[in-house]
Design brief:
This is protein-tyrosine-phosphatase. Its EC number is 3.1.3.48. InterPro entries: Dual-sp_phosphatase_cat-dom, DUSP12, Prot-tyrosine_phosphatase-like, Tyr_Pase_AS, Tyr_Pase_dom, TYR_PHOSPHATASE_DUAL_dom. By secondary structure, this protein is of the alpha+beta class. The protein is built from nine helices and 16 strands. The strands form four sheets. A seven-stranded mixed beta sheet has the order 1-2-7-3-6-5-4, with helices on both faces. A four-stranded antiparallel beta sheet has the order 10-15-12-11. Strands 9-8-16 form a three-stranded antiparallel beta sheet, with no helix packed on it. A hairpin with a 5-residue loop joins strand 13 and strand 14. The longest helix is centred in the middle third of the chain and has 17 residues. It is elongated and about 70 Å long. The termini are far apart. Bound molecules: zinc ion (ZN) (2 copies). One zinc ion binds next to loops.
Amino acid sequence: MPYLVRERLFIGNIGDAAEILQNGSNEITHILSVLSSASITFFTEWRSGLSIPSKEIRKVYVGGSGSDDDSGSGSKSSLSPDKLLYSLEYAGKDLKFVRMAVPLRDMESEDLLDYLDVCLDFIENSRKEGSVLVHCFAGVSRSAAIITAYLMRSEQLSQEDAVESLRESCESVCPNDGFLEQLKMFEQMGFKVDHASPIYKRFRLKLLGDSYNRGEKIDGSKFGADPGLPAENVSPNVEASLNKESPSTPAYRCKKCRRVLALKDNVLGHVPGEGETCFGWHKRRSGNPFNRSDDDECSSIFVEPLRWMTSVEEGGLEGKLLCAHCEARLGYFNWSGIQCSCGSWITPAFQLHKSKVDISTI
Ligand SMILES: [Zn+2]
Ligand SMILES: [Zn+2]
């Protein structure tokens, strides 16, 4: 039996969903399925003999229309543009249910954040029209993570308080640690997923690092846009960000040839001297390191990978970063990390020596 979490909001497992889809429900009208496959055939593969009719409403891909991720700007999703974001269909007995399905595996490295907006909006809208069941396979991790995010956003709860509150309805919920970290980021970003936020950029870089460590080919299209390109080649988003704060946007330029290498937004700050990787989200002891620029004791700045860093795309674990215009040596990159002069380890690291760059405004 599904558990009631809030009025018109239930959490359950695949068995609950199958039962409702097959036999109908007096209460539930909408179903949000969070399984490793979005296809309704997942149910029949899970239990042969089940037959659940469905009729597609639409499928939406990450890079599809309405997405803000088609511009090659520095502010984009970690998901590949051709990945299915969700499918929407009529399903179940008499095709009476509206089912949204998102493909998500229950793994710590899975990108939950980029599915939250569509899932939370679906829950919100479904509760206006009827009642919604959010389910995954076991009703423990994925569905719980999404409902936690929903409670956080709708009731302005911290991640901890939202999980606690959900546990009062359903004792067994337990989002995996990777999801809990992402929900913490969701809280720190103000209950939204802000692709331009340093918090999100760190997350995206961590996923890139994970994918590098799995031996996958480096996808340069996931790098930040090159702020040093002439305006006519720059995507509208970057141009907007260049003009937005103009003329006072701080920029890092090559000391030798003055080419713009990075903007303030591309810099991923760290807490000087903290001997942890900058990705130890829950290991932070004091203050909020996000948005903080590097202290004077740091001899380097660390940035997100940017399109001009062609040496990174060659696939090596580490290498030099050369100016795209004059080929001056600016610093190093290393997927397994570089230690800053202040003692902090940055992993993965894309480092520019302060002695090789000038800070000026555009
Ligand atoms: Zn440092
Ligand atoms: Zn240069």
